[in-house]
Amino acid sequence: MSDHEQPPLPPNSRLSGDALPPVEQHAQQYETVRNAHETELIEDYVELIGDLLRHRGEARAADIASRMAVSQATVSKMIRRLNELGLVTSRPYRSLFLTEEGHKMAETSRARHDIVLHFLRALGVRDNTARIDAEGMEHHVSDETLAIMRRFTEKHQT
Amino acid sequence: MSDHEQPPLPPNSRLSGDALPPVEQHAQQYETVRNAHETELIEDYVELIGDLLRHRGEARAADIASRMAVSQATVSKMIRRLNELGLVTSRPYRSLFLTEEGHKMAETSRARHDIVLHFLRALGVRDNTARIDAEGMEHHVSDETLAIMRRFTEKHQT
DNA sequence: CAAATAGTTTAACCTTGGCTAACAATTATT
DNA sequence: AATAATTGTTAGCCAAGGTTAAACTATTTG
Ligand SMILES: [Mn+2]
Ligand SMILES: [Mn+2]
Ligand SMILES: [Mn+2]
Ligand SMILES: [Mn+2]
């Protein structure tokens, strides 16, 4: 047992990092992240389809593929999944459309995405960086934090 | 007839939400998120092992399993992977240790995690919520945003 | 109209990250 | 010392999310 550089437990324990949280709380952190990962991609697809419909009038698989930088085969498979989940309707070789439920998810996701993006910009993050960070962060921001971000952005209007 | 070329800049769709970013920029958002997902779990494991070593003096697979709320089999498989990646050394039934490279990754990850956590608290997010959000957000925060968060937290010391 | 091009789907494959069940090794208890 | 409990490994399973290659359908163009 190399007791080489064992931690000397500094008297001022604030020297490096926080203490370990209790096991149950710590476990809840990771579980919440795993849950978010399960819905993350679905949300991004549905949100993008909603955005394409709103801004372009139609949402084709090829557009999704190029905007997501993913193969068309990947999109095709995912569309089948979205269909099974009752989020989109699709006829072969036609534009996709959102179901009522899909539309609701798209709206919610877009609203959340916008709050995070606008918050980052209000903080002073450059636009391109803010867009990249928001795309990942959005799925891990609680309602509580979201509300605080929204208020912060309002107060810091430019 | 997809958006191959530059966006024709729609007339006046300022009614709800932002405009669609150019295809390449949009694609970069999703690509960055996918890349982050590839390293995310590894970082969490290495960071947790580092924390256990620092606070407990040893890092056992069983502790990781309970703190991550995951089966021991899952941890065992992941440890083999961390070993192959040269991030940890392990002898059966003994504590794990970090390699030089693993130690470096643990430090970097912990520092980033702390910046995000402290930032959320400085923003006014309750501690438990901040911990949960930080666990997921940390992997999607750019260096630029991280620097801004650090400065913000310093300025808003309580 | 025929041919070329663009869009979509399917099949076969891969890696990650979970799980359970069975077994093996170590450590603790009686 | 024997047994029980804890800890760790292995095998086999699964779903998600990617890939290429090939086939099929629709649209555009010569
Ligand atoms: Mn989004
Ligand atoms: Mn996203
Ligand atoms: Mn972390
Ligand atoms: Mn994390």
TrEMBL record, chains A, B:
The keyword Transcription regulation applies. The keyword Iron-sulfur does not apply. Residues 1-20 are annotated as: Disordered. Residues 39-99 form the HTH dtxR-type domain. Keywords: Activator, Cytoplasm, DNA-binding, Manganese, Repressor, Transcription, Transcription regulation. It is found in: Cytoplasm. NCBIfam families: PRK11050.1 (NF008273). In the presence of manganese, represses expression of mntH and mntS. Up-regulates expression of mntP. Belongs to the DtxR/MntR family. Homodimer. This is Transcriptional regulator MntR. It comes from Vreelandella janggokensis.
